[in-house]
Design goal:
The complex is a heterodimer of chains A (about 110) and B (about 120).
Chain A lengths: L3 E3 L2 E5 L4 E6 L6 E7 L6 E7 L4 E3 L3 E6 L4 E6 L8 E8 L7 E2 L3 E6 L1
Chain B lengths: L3 E4 L2 E4 L5 E7 L5 E7 L5 E9 L2 E4 L6 E4 L5 E6 L8 E8 L11 E2 L3 E5 L1
Classes of the chains: A mainly beta (about 110), B mainly beta (about 120).
């Protein structure tokens, strides 16, 4: 069961903040976030593990609510380089088996 | 380090033809994955491997086969290509950490496949 991301798309001005949400119908072991620019491969941003461990990008933060089976990615003081499609991936138990959401397209304008 | 590489970058097939996509990683990662990404959509896991000699089905395995004979290589095969398999195919790898099974995935540049 793939996770559901919201919103599907968001448009910002430079310096504004954004929140992207990822929710699952199953209990989660981990959530990871990637950014993909058009025509390129996804690039790792952040991973959040059951129990609170986090690892990721310096300027991007995220939360993981295990009880609600949700994660949120916080992009603060957005820059033009933040534009792209953001995907969350989740693991629900089988080591190695990841399921990705359909993505949130972020456009940052000058 | 080259990271994750994929061969070929582009390919056009006719319906019914077969082909093999090669993924190679030089990071000594245990886990490797094959995904497909259709336009405007997310990544769909086709097959994955948690170690040399082992493979498992993902979300959309039908019409594909895989092999992991060497730790650094993961091959994806299409035995009889169909237009529905037109997509961008990404390979990824990740490491196994003691006490933690889930780590970030490193993606290859992708293979753009068109089936006519």
């Amino acid at each position: 069961q793939q996770p559901v991301q919201s919103p599907q798309a968001v448009i910002l001005r430079e310096g504004e903040d954004a929140v992207i949400n990822c929710s699952s119908s199953k209990a989660l072991y981990s959530v990871h976030w990637y950014r993909q620019k058009h025509g390129e491969a996804p690039v790792f941003l952040m991973i959040l593990l059951k129990g609170g461990e986090q690892k990721g990008h310096e300027k991007i933060s995220a939360s993981f609510n295990e009880k609600k089976q949700q994660s949120s990615l916080y992009l603060t003081a957005s820059q033009l380089s933040y534009s792209g499609t953001y995907f969350c991936g989740t693991e629900t138990g089988n080591a190695g088996k990841s399921t990705f959401g359909d993505g949130t397209t972020l456009t940052v304008k000058p | 380090n080259a990271g994750v590489t994929q061969t070929p970058k582009f390919r056009v097939l006719k319906t019914g033809q077969s082909m093999t996509l090669l993924c190679a990683q030089d990071m000594n990662h245990e886990y490797m994955y094959w995904y497909r990404q259709d336009p405007g959509m997310g990544l769909r896991l086709i097959h994955y491997s948690v170690g040399e000699g082992t493979t498992a089905k993902g979300e959309v395995p039908d019409g594909y086969n895989v092999s992991r004979l060497k730790k650094q290589n993961f091959l994806l095969g299409l035995e009889s290509a169909a237009p529905s398999q037109t997509s961008v195919y990404f390979c990824a790898s990740s490491y196994s950490d003691s006490g933690r099974d889930y780590n970030e995935q490193f993606f290859g540049p992708g293979t753009r496949l068109t089936v006519l």
